[in-house]
Structures are given as C-alpha cells and as structure tokens.
Design goal:
single chain, 764 residues, mainly beta, Jelly Rolls, nine-stranded antiparallel beta sheet, seven-stranded antiparallel beta sheet, 3 helices, globular
C-alpha cells in the first residue's frame, strides 16, 4: 500500500547584510594587436546613460571585465545602443585558466548583449580565484567576444548581484521503497533595502547531481519592495538525483541584485535570508515514517516593545507529549514568523526562546512603512521534552512588529507499527469574503468552513487556529472571533493584517470550535473597530491539530494535507494565465475535506487586483467553473496574499454526483488569472482521508428478482444527495461512505406505485 506525504524543512535564518550592487573595477579590453585597456569603472557604476562606449571592442577575444574584492553572482547591464550580430561567452578565473561560469542562467536579454536590457546569473564556483587584470587584482568575470559584432553597442550602466551564504540541508525521508516525488518546491526569501527593480536567482543542488539555476527578473516599474521571494518546483530533479537512500543533502543559494534606479542609490542587495523546502511524495508504507505537523503560534494583539516579551504563554508545546507516536526522532523544528511591521532606517526585530539572548535581525538601511514581514528560523537546538516561551522585541521606538505570530513546523520520524495514537495536522481553507464589514459584531464578515473527521474512537482537539489575511485600508483594529468566543481585538496601525487566532481551549479566547467525529463546522467572524475603517479582502485557513486512535487501514488513511504548486513566480498578465498541471495521486477511495489555494501576490503597484482560479471539469474541455480570491489592494507592498477554498470545483469523493466537478485524481490544467501584471505564486492544498464505511440494506416489495434497482443515498442534514447503488437479486445493495457519524437515508423507485424511503441510519 502506498503513502502520499508532505514534509517541510527550513532554511536557517541568516542575518548577514550583503554588499550593494556597485563593483570595484570595469575594464574594456581591446585584443587586436595586443591587449589595451580602458577603465570604465566610474561610468559603468553611474546612472548616466550612453557613457560606456564599446566601439572598436567587438572583435574576437575583446573583453568586458567586471571585478570586485568579493565574489558576486550576477550582472544587470543596460545599453543605450543595442549590439547586433555577435556573440560572447561568460568566464571566470579558476586560478589556472579562464573557464565558463557555472550554471549560467539568463532572465532577460543575454550574455551577448543583443538588445538593451540584460540580466544573467551564475553560480560562484568554489575555485574562483583573484587575478590581476591590467595590474589590478580582483575577482573578475569577463564577457569575451567569440563572434565578431556588426554593431557593438553602448552601455549605460552595470550592477552586480550578490549571493547569500549557501544553505546545506539534510533532508530525511525514510519511506524509500518505490518513492516518487510529486512536488518539490523550494522557497527562499530575504529582506531588501532598495526601492527599484529587484532581480534574483535560486541555485539548487540535490545530492551529487548537477546544479539547477532558476532566475527571475521583476520587470515592473519602480516601487518600494521589502522582500525578495522566489519559488521553484524541482520535482524532476529530486526524482533523478535524490537517490534511493533515506536522506540526502540539498544545497540552496539565493542570489539577489538590483537594477540601477534613477536616483543612483545602490542599497544592500539583501539581508535576513531564510526559506523552506516542501516535498510531496508517494512511497510504499513502512514501519518507520516521517511527518510534518503545523503548530500555530497565536498573534499578539498589539505592537512589540523594546523589551523581550513572550508571545502568549508557552506556545511551543512539549513535543514529547504533543506528538503521541512511538519512538520519535525529531528532524526539524522551524518557526515561521508572519506579521506586519513598521520599518525605519536602522530598526529591526529580535527573537528569543526562553531565557536565551536575543537573535537580532540585521538592521534595515532604508525606511519602509507598514510592510509584511516573514522569515523562517530553524531551532533544532531547542529541547523537545519541555514547553518553551517564544519572545520578541524591537530595537527602535519607531520600528516595531505588529500582531507578531506564526507557525511552528515540526518534522519527525516515528514507529508507525507500534504507535497507538496519531497526531493529525490538517489545513482547511474557508470561503474568501471580498466585501466590507461594518463596525459591530452584527455586521461582521463571516466565513464558514466544514470538514470531515472519521478517525477511529475518540478525537481530541489540540493547539489549533485560524490564520486570517485581511486588508484595512485606513489602518484600523480588527476584532475577530470564532464560534462562541468573545471578540479579540488585533491592533491598529497597519493596513494588511496577518493574524493567527487560536480556536482550541488553550487560546486567549478559549475554544472556538466544537470538535467531534463526523462533519465539523468552524465559523470565523471579523469586523472593523470603527466606522472610519473598511475591513475587506478577508480570507482564512484553519490549522486543525487533533489526536485519534490509529486507523486499521494504516496511517495513510488518516486526514492529511498535501501541497502542490500551481505555478512559480512569473511576470505576466490576465491575458496569459498561470498554468500548472496537477494529477493528485489519490487512493481508490477518498474524501476530500478541503481543496484550497494560497496565492502570494508580490509587488502589486497602486492597484486593486482580482484573481480567479479555475480548472477543466466534466463537460468543460477548456476551463471549468471558477472561484475568485478576495480582492487584493496594494500600494507597492510585498506579501499581499489570499486563501481561497476550491471545494466546489472538485469532486469530494470518487462517486460524487455533482456534474462539472473536477476529478482531482486525473491530471488537469489549473489556471490562475488576475487583473494586473505582477509577480504571482500559488499553491494548491488538498486535505483528504480514506477511512471508509459501508451502507448496506435491502429493498423489499419489488417485482421480479429485485436486481437492477437504483438506490439513491442522501444525508439527512440538508437532504444532500451523495450517490447511488444498484441492487443485486433479492434487493440487497451496498454503498461506500466516508463517515460512520452521518445520518443517512435511502430512496428507491421502481414505478409510481413501487417507491419508498428507508429509515435514517449510519454507515458502519
């Protein structure tokens, strides 16, 4: 029997501040009749146009050298006059000879400079050595002419990109029999302190395989940007390079750079780098397994202070008891902070666990107001046999975090065979709400989500929450409540809210979810604190953690959430939708509790954006029904995002009778359309279980032998039609259902005179 599983590993926070995009030396070398050099360092670093002429430097082996005292990993070159008919190669000095730069990746233009805008990257090889060029020793790359130019062109300016320290992450996956990676997406992000035209590249190496480079050029007009955020799906690389073992080293490097702005400012290329590796794979079930659980950290209601203050109380639980399985080995513990933040120059946040000294983010060197902050902090050094205090502070009175909260991702191996209790960690998205709320609870925006729990025996809710994303254009406070809770008000000052609000009994407002086996309903309401504010663009995902007895069909039959990318970040518009083909490897019997999408919309520039997700369903060859994300209103901010439930697009179970619904087990092209040109990444999350029950019965009073009659099955609650069965001789029938806690009934009609309804009953 195969298992579908999704695990996460963090890329450790690195607070190093990268150098800016200037460089130390630029030579133009003419090799006809012996080398001669022209120093263009000042002009190439300036924003003056057309001041680096290349006339006479287009013959074979003529070179453009760019050098610096430190290694670098990319170039952005703008020409006022484009080159035509010619070729160049990109080379570095390895200590003995000039060699082609490793893993060259081009996002715009090309190394030959045919055109006006050129962005390209390379992996800075470990053997890159300094060399003297015209008696000046630096780390150089050179663009050497290999095909003579008709027009060489004129350069206006050059900038370099810088590499964050490469992460080496050991990824453990003990299920190695018939293992196939369905998705392997890697996300790296870093704070930036420049305001114009970022560009970046992600280099990934799986095991001893070849390195992959994935470049991205922002391409939008200038705007204040706080975070470089790059995603790439490398499932094919993992399938060919991970190997047959139970672990593998993954190397990830994020390269960040900037184009030269009109102001001429060249701020740091980046700082506070972190990220995550999210792997979804299918493999044979075995005794030792691995899982990742998501533990929500409830947000503060207000702003941070200059003293370390605990977020809630011991929200990092004792993992030795929180995770109930047998023989656990904890492989990864990563905090993911998500909150808004007011930035000023030289201001930053600090984090700590328990009584340790604070870990400081690197200081920001440019001012930003009201921005979203996100980072990953790997803390594998923390004890797994005690609860812990998570603390935060800020260093400058006018630079502070707002409603600080987030997730604790815990990845651990365990002995499934000898486990008697299972921790189920799932994510269920609620319907998005694009309208506006009032300023009273009666006028709140309300979102409801239903999900099925069919685990065996008793189920017990543990640390769980809703993650709310909302917009408050006038920077007002947001009172929020779930179920029968009283409202908890999350503070003012920011226009984009990221709120983690607990719904278990240990949260600040007590239990907000009546949790039991069968169909559960979670209601989340939010409104604005004043009539002067407009709460809108409201969506959420529920992070539900609960324990249950182990299912007889195996751990793989329990509720699980699996993540698949819809598309990596690209630059496009509504006339060219993002597309991604997903074929979910579902078992023969399944019940989809949630199909949702999370869309990141980076760099919305002074406009409101509408996003629609759709896919081809039955009877819709091109595109099926559509769902709409909440409107995302922006003023050149980073991290506008929204959750969107897609349940009505998809079949909830194999025999789901809804016409036009998508069969998620078959491959479909999902499309994400939106109303403005910007950067996008979206991922689909599927939560399902495959614990089955059986409805059995007998039709009586028929004519003939009783075979071939259609028996329709309905839920008593709402008279929802869920499918049909056909009788055998003697009128017997069976029907597979996914809960033994639903009241059901059956109807059968042979003729107008021979028809009837059963009594209510449950599958068993």
């Amino acid at each position: 029997m195969s298992v579908l599983n999704t695990v996460r590993y963090g890329l450790s926070l690195n607070t190093t501040i990268l150098d800016d995009s200037t460089f130390d030396q630029c030579w133009i070398e003419d090799n006809s009749g012996g080398p001669s050099y022209v120093d263009e360092t000042t002009d190439a670093n300036s924003t003056t146009t057309a001041d680096v002429p290349l006339a006479g430097y287009g013959d074979a082996n003529d070179c453009i050298y760019v050098g610096d005292s430190a290694t670098f990993a990319g170039l952005f070159i703008t020409l006022s006059t484009a080159a035509t008919v010619g070729t160049r190669v990109l080379e570095y000095w390895d200590g003995d000879s000039w060699e082609l730069c490793e893993t060259q990746t081009v996002t715009t233009g090309g190394i030959s400079l045919i055109g006006t805008t050129h962005t390209f990257f390379w992996y800075p090889s470990a053997n890159w050595a300094t060399r003297a060029v015209n008696s000046v020793t630096k780390y150089y790359v050179r663009l050497r002419v290999t095909g003579v130019y008709t027009v060489v062109g004129t350069i206006s300016w050059i900038s370099v990109s810088r590499a964050h320290t490469e992460w080496t992450k050991t990824v453990y996956i003990p299920e190695n029999s018939n293992r196939t990676f369905k998705s392997a997406f890697i996300r790296a992000l870093a704070h930036t302190t420049f305001s114009d035209y970022p560009y970046w590249c992600l280099f990934v190496k799986v095991g001893s395989g070849t390195r992959t480079g994935s470049g991205l050029d922002r391409g939008n007009s200038s705007a204040g940007v706080l975070t470089v955020d790059h995603f790439v799906d490398l499932a094919s690389d993992f399938n060919t390079k991970f190997g047959a073992g139970t672990s593998q080293d993954i190397k990830v490097m994020l390269v960040a750079g900037k184009r030269v702005p009109s102001s001429g400012s060249r701020y740091s290329c980046g700082q506070n780098a972190s990220g995550e590796i999210v792997l979804t794979y299918e493999a044979d079930a075995q005794q030792t397994r691995i899982k990742t659980v998501c533990i929500p950290i409830e947000s503060q209601t207000g702003d941070t202070t200059t003293s370390l203050t605990e977020i809630g109380t011991n929200q990092w639980p004792d993992l030795s008891t929180f995770c109930p399985e047998a023989s656990k080995t904890f492989r990864e513990m990563t905090l993911q902070f998500k909150h808004s933040h007011a930035f000023v120059a030289s201001g930053y946040l600090s984090y700590a666990i328990d009584s340790e000294s604070a870990t400081d983010l690197s200081s920001f060197t440019a001012s930003y107001s009201d921005s979203m902050l996100e980072l990953f902090w790997v803390r594998n050094d923390v004890s797994t046999s005690a609860a812990h205090a998570i603390k935060v502070k800020h260093t400058t009175a006018s630079a502070f975090g707002r409603q600080v909260g987030g997730f604790l991702w815990v990845t651990y191996e365990y002995d499934h065979t000898n486990s008697t209790t299972i921790l189920n960690s799932i994510r269920i998205a609620g319907e998005s709400e694009p309208t506006f709320s009032g300023d009273t609870e009666a006028e709140a925006l309300e979102v409801r989500v239903k999900f099925m729990v069919n685990e065996p025996a008793t189920v017990t809710l543990v640390q769980s929450a809703v993650h709310v994303l909302a917009g408050v254009p006038s920077a007002g406070s947001v009172p929020l409540l779930c179920g029968s809770q009283s409202a908890r008000t999350y503070g003012s000052g920011d226009t984009r809210k990221s709120i983690m609000h607990r719904v278990d009994s240990g949260g600040a407002q007590g239990a907000g979810l009546t949790f039991a086996r069968g169909l559960n309903t979670l209601t989340c309401r939010a409104y604005q604190s004043s009539a002067s504010y407009n709460l809108s663009f409201y969506s959420f995902v529920a992070i539900i953690n609960y324990t249950s007895a182990k299912a007889s069909g195996g751990e793989q039959t329990h509720n699980k959430t699996h993540r698949f990318p819809i598309q990596s970040v690209v630059t496009t518009g509504r006339d060219a939708p993002l597309q991604y083909s997903i074929a979910l490897p579902l078992p023969a019997s399944y019940y989809l509790s949630s199909v949702s999408a999370l869309c990141f919309s980076a760099y919305v520039f002074y406009q409101t954006q509408l996003m629609i997700l759709r896919a081809a369903g039955e009877g819709n060859a091109k595109s099926g029904p559509a769902i709409m994300f909440p409107s995302i209103q922006g003023s050149s901010f980073y991290f506008n995002a929204g959750y969107c439930v897609a349940n009505r697009l998809t079949k909830a179970f194999p025999t789901d009778p809804r016409w036009g619904a998508i069969d998620s087990s078959a491959s479909h092209t999902w499309e994400l359309l939106y109303s403005s040109a910007t950067k996008q990444f979206s991922c689909a999350e599927f939560t399902f279980h495959s614990i089955t029950e059986t409805v059995t019965g007998t039709v009586s009073g028929y004519t003939g032998d009783g075979s071939g009659l259609t028996v329709d099955i309905f839920r008593v609650d709402g008279d929802e039609y869920i499918g049909s069965a056909t009788t055998a001789a003697g009128g017997t029938y069976t029907f597979t259902w996914y809960s033994d806690n639903d009241d059901l009934y059956a109807t059968c009609r042979q003729s107008d005179a021979l028809c009837g309804r059963s009594t209510d009953g449950k599958a068993s």
